[in-house]
Structure formats: C-alpha cells, structure tokens
C-alpha cells in the first residue's frame, strides 16, 4: 500500500463528505475546556466511507488496533529536530469516555464506540513543557473521520484530557485554566491528538511550545501510520 494512504483518505472524507458547517475553533494557545458539558449542543455529523477508499482498506482494518507499547515504545525520545523528550506517564483504556470532554464522548456515541484510547505524557530536557499525545482508535474509518473533522473545527470543545504527571515524575501539575496548544492528525483508523503546555502555566514562548507539540505529534503519527499500514511489527 502506498505511503500516506491515511492522509489521502482523510482528504477525501474532509472535502467530500463533511455534513456540518458552523462555528469553528482556533488551534492557537487558549484555555482548555473543563471536563463538564458546555451549553453548545453537539451537532449530528454524518460521515460515509468515500467511494474511492483504498482497496486494501478492509485488510488494514482487520488488524487489531494499536497497543500502547506500539504507539509509544520509548521512554527517551530524540526527535527529528534533535530535541530530546522523556515519557513520564503512559495510560491506556477501552473506556474511552473517561479520557475526553463530554462533547467528544457525545459525538462518538453517534457511531460505533472507540476501541482504545492510549495517552502518553512527555516533558522536554529542561522539564519545562508537558505535552500529552493521545491515540484514539476506532474499528471504522467513518468514526475516526467524524472525530477528526469536529476536533479540527473546534479543538477546545472536542478534546481529549491531558495527563497530569505522576508523583514519581517530580513535575508540577499545570495550573487549571492555563494556556495550551492543540493539534491533531488522522491516520487510517485513529485520530492522534497532541496538547502542549508550559508546566508553570506560562502564556509566553508560544512558538516554542507549539514546536514541541507538533514535533511529538509527528513522532507518534509516524508510529501509528507504520503500524496501521502494516509496515511495523505487531498483529
């Protein structure tokens, strides 16, 4: 299967089958939404598999969803830009609603359930940043596409929960309501989210925290794509 199939598939869905129009959201730094329902109703979003979906898709979807050790195999990560990051926490659950906003959970209820949510918390070499990268996997492409589309339009409402560092990590918990950067990408059957914040809640150096967030998103995306397209081990 050609590289980048997941991206091609997403493009087909996003451009051809988006059924919702309305207030979008910004990816710029802003206060994360609390884990309570908002006053904005969750729209009904219809997404169908495009007619030009890759012929190999059924065999790819027959593979088990990616496991935590496949998505985040390393505790110490050296990224393409040369920076080093440490994974200080790893969590995974099949009860996906526990790790997301009420709006995202309600959106997912419109289709088939999430199969697995796996999240990892990273910090940089200076232990200043806290970046949570989350892989939300589905049995059906349509359900992943629905989540990706709405999270792209309103990343604050349709978000996954950032991890707090465990006590043994020796890191502070980011103050509630602190500014954050949100990014996400869709693979064959998963949506990979990344949210980055400074540990002290600072709103300065937005470019730096954005760069770290995007670099860790690319790191996770590369591993998820390789697994889902059958280019890495695991079954």
Largest sheet: 6 strands, antiparallel
Shape: globular
Q: Estimate the mean pLDDT confidence.
A: 81
How far apart are the first and last residues' alpha carbons, in Å? 17 Å
Radius of gyration: 17 Å
Number of strands: 6
How are the strands ordered across the major sheet?
1-2-3-4-6-5
Helix content: 25-40%
Report what the structure shows:
The chain is of the alpha+beta class and 235 residues long. It is built from six helices and six strands; from the N terminus they run αααββαββαββα. The chain has a six-stranded antiparallel β-sheet. The longest helix is centred in the last third of the chain and has 23 residues. The chain is globular and about 45 Å long. The N terminus is likely disordered.
Architecture blueprint of SSEs:
Elements: H1 5-16, H2 57-61, H3 68-71, E1 76-78, E2 84-93, H4 102-108, E3 114-124, E4 129-138, H5 141-153, E5 181-186, E6 190-198, H6 206-228
Antiparallel strand pairs: 1-2, 2-3, 3-4, 4-6, 5-6
Concise synopsis of the structure shown:
Helices cover 27% and strands 21% of the residues. The protein is built from six helices and six strands, in the order H-H-H-E-E-H-E-E-H-E-E-H. The radius of gyration is 17 Å and the shape is globular.
Question: What labels would you give this structure?
Answer:
235 residues, alpha+beta, 6-stranded antiparallel beta sheet, 6 helices, 27% helix
